[in-house]
Design a protein that fits this description.
- This protein has 319 residues and is an alpha+beta fold.
- 33% of the residues lie in helices and 27% in strands.
- It has a 5-stranded mixed sheet, with helices on both faces. Strands 8-15-14-13 form a 4-stranded mixed sheet, sandwiched between helices. The protein has a two-stranded antiparallel ribbon with strand order 2-3.
- Helix 7 packs parallel to helix 8.
- It is globular, with a radius of gyration of 18 Å.
- The structure holds acetyl coenzyme *A.
- Acetyl coenzyme *A binds next to helix 2, helix 6, helix 7 and strand 14.
Amino acid sequence: MTHSKIIGTGSYLPEKILTNQDLESIVDTNDSWIRTRTGIEQRHIAADNEMASDLAVNACLKAIESADISIDKIDLIIVATTTPDMTFPSTACILQNKLGIKDCPAFDVQAVCSGFVYALATADMFIRAGKYKTALVVGTEIYSRLLDWSDRSTCVLFGDGAGAVLITKSDQPGILSSHLHANGSHYNTLSLPGNISHGKIQGNPFVTMEGNTVFKFAVKVMEEIVYEALSENNLQTSDIDWLIPHQANIRIIRSTAKKLGISMEKVVTTIAKHGNTSAASIPLALDLAVRDKRIKPNQYVLLEGVGGGFTWGAVLIRW
Ligand code: ACO
């Protein structure tokens, strides 16, 4: 039977760091509030001349290098992003061009903070169906450009960055299962309503959210999706070696781990240094834990995300 498995990871964070102390001079906030309520200490901010595809290129080159394969083996590119370079074409096409790849399908996936999980699940399906052999799956975001920097309830939460994985056809899993959900009745709870129409931006061009509603929903589904993934594979929470959740808020992550009875020592967190990088947060955390050698062969790694839509999902991996 054909499976897919991850053979390389990479990530990239823009050079500029914005600390909580820096934010104190921008909005009425303070380091203590941000740390206590969110776990965030700092976030990275893209340079004016950097686009989501540029962040992605840097992450992808590292993933390709770590997989030690020739770039011309890549026959599928999927980019998860909420902050595309342009309305069209897709950031995946721009990335393909920047990487010098001549011909392969390339498209974006829009599932906000669950985007990487959606993209990885999609690539896995294509590979398992025998259609493609080696896929580049990327999460890349520049949220700093979607924020109202006078709104302290949102501007302190997000950061910029990119993460990428290379997955390839394999006789052994690899990716054991993926689980995707959406409930569009919540589309207004976390959104950026603005759109381009008749040459103008119509509607609010900044991230808006009902923080408490998002928080409660995230804690609920982050627990449920883990049980769904484990049940399909006849595994228990004690079998999970590494939980890599979307990094939105350390309190969401801690609550999820506590409800599942998983020690925080088995949870990879980057929220303190990265903030919430939306679709990039899971591959950024995964790359960190691969490179510092926390993740070892044969271990069970569970990726899980939740985001606007609402969307949520998980991918269970035998590393
Ligand atoms: N600095 C100081 N005070 C602030 C700030 C700030 N940056 N932001 C809000 N406050 C104030 C509020 O005005 C309020 O003051 P008041 O009591 O005088 O009215 C007080 O802090 C409490 O506000 P709450 O919104 O109730 O604070 P809460 O503890 O719920 O934390 C937070 C807010 C951090 C946004 C939380 O609800 C949260 O993390 N929700 C999840 C949202 C999220 O993560 N979104 C990211 C995208 S979604 C995703 O990735 C899944």
